UniProtKB/TrEMBL annotation:
Any single GO CC term annotated in Swiss-Prot or TrEMBL for this entry: cytosol
Native organism: Mucilaginibacter myungsuensis
Gene3D superfamilies: NADP-dependent oxidoreductase domain (3.20.20.100)
Domain of life: Bacteria
Domain NADP-dependent oxidoreductase span(s) in chain numbering: 15-308
One of the record's GO molecular function terms: oxidoreductase activity
Keyword Oxidoreductase belongs to the record: yes
Name listed for the protein in its UniProt record: Aldo/keto reductase
Length: 340
């Protein structure tokens, strides 16, 4: 495994992140303790140091299992990312949301479950559309100053909110968000409209969740295998199946798995990207880890892009696609080298 810098920071994280939402069986699915430990061990032995969890995963069991595992290991090797926002078994009105009170309470609970005295990366989990973004950033910055958290990051939030937050933080000398977690895959490309260009602008690393469409892009359902993605959902509808077939045929060409192709596609898209790969079985992880050894040709990238293409919508399509319109800027734009 190679390491990458996480966003505009000096933090080195493995080029794949381990998704741990399925560690524990409290929600009626997932991996038991032994399997979760085997998965963490395999990932760490391959050089993986970057774990993704959240206060609510499997009712706290995911954090607890990670805590049990790292207390038998060198804590400092690992980069633990967790999240706050979602209600974790409390009844008070501030036990959820992006507010400062919940942030502080949730972090204390996560530290206990993780059996550590610091979190490496704390994500805001989902935008609550209520809390002012300056309250969030100031709270995160205080946690960082107190040494409870090392870096701030954000997930599932509109681009304009993240953008305002990072600009404010820069002006105020607060820690900025260094990573952006969003659902992104060959069957969910809408973050290309606003979120990914925004992340590139701020030098944030994108950490896609459900990069395999919950498993659909491995082709398992087309082969008649079982899993937790429901039939006819947007990950298994006609369009998703068409995309998955393209992924499978490129995988056959390369002699690798469809999952490898789906993960590698986003790693070659031209922005800083560390997929958060979930696994509930050790063999799934072993297969997925092979992704770091493959490369897609330009022609294969184009084939995947075309099979999964979505309209950018307004204003993306309006200013990107119309060559005639570009000429109406004066005819020079096709000769200007664009900023990378
Ligand atoms: N920020 C957020 O809102 C958010 C939301 C969701 C997830 N996440 C994070 O992102 C991580 C990944 O999400 P995800 O688990 O939905 O994404 P995913 O990586 O797209 O899907 C993982 C699932 O795919 C199947 N799978 C994986 N490798 C396979 C293989 N080689 N062959 C066959 N099936 C395979 C397994 O499903 P089965 O268990 O059905 O076999 C596994 O649980 C989570 O663990 C979590 O850390 C964040």
């Amino acid at each position: 495994m190679k390491y990458k810098l996480l966003g505009r920071s000096g933090l080195k994280v493995s080029e794949l992140c381990l998704g741990t939402m399925g560690f524990g069986t409290d929600n009626g699915w997932g991996a038991d303790k032994d399997t979760s430990f085997a998965i963490m061990e395999e990932f760490a032995n391959a050089g993986g140091n970057f774990f993704d969890t959240a206060n609510v995963y499997q009712k706290g069991t995911s954090e607890r299992l990670i805590g049990d595992f790292i207390s038998q290991q060198d804590r400092d090797f690992f980069v633990l990312a967790t999240k706050y926002t979602l209600k974790d078994n409390q009844t008070n009105p501030n036990a959820s949301g992006n507010n400062r009170k919940n942030m502080m309470r949730s972090v204390e609970e996560s530290l206990k479950r993780l059996k550590t005295d610091f979190i490496d990366v704390l994500y805001l989990h989902i935008w609550d559309d209520i809390t002012p973004i300056d309250e969030v950033l100031r709270g995160l910055d205080d946690l960082i100053r107190h040494g409870k958290v090392n870096y701030a990051a954000i997930s599932d939030t509109p681009a304009w909110v993240v953008s305002k937050g990072n600009t404010l933080a820069e002006l105020m000398g607060w820690s900025q968000f260094i990573a952006l977690q969003v659902e992104y895959s060959l069957i969910q490309r809408t973050p290309e409209r606003e979120l990914i260009p925004m992340a590139k602008h701020y030098g944030m690393t994108v950490t896609p969740w459900a990069p395999l469409g919950g498993g659909a892009l491995t082709g398992k359902y087309l082969r008649g295998e079982q899993g937790r993605v429901k039939a006819e959902s947007n990950r298994r509808n006609e369009n998703a199946e068409k995309i998955t077939r393209t992924v499978m045929s490129i995988a056959d060409e390369l002699g690798v798995t469809a999952g490898n192709v789906a993960l590698q596609w986003m790693r070659q898209k031209g922005f800083s990207c560390i997929p958060i790969v979930g696994a509930t079985k050790i063999d799934q992880l072993k297969e997925n880890l092979k992704t770091v050894d493959i490369a897609l040709t330009d022609a294969q990238m184009q084939q995947l892009d075309e099979a999964s293409n979505i309209p950018l919508g307004f204003p993306g399509d309006f200013f990107k696609e119309d060559a005639v319109k570009l000429n109406s800027f004066g005819g020079f734009y096709d000769r200007v080298e664009k900023r990378k």
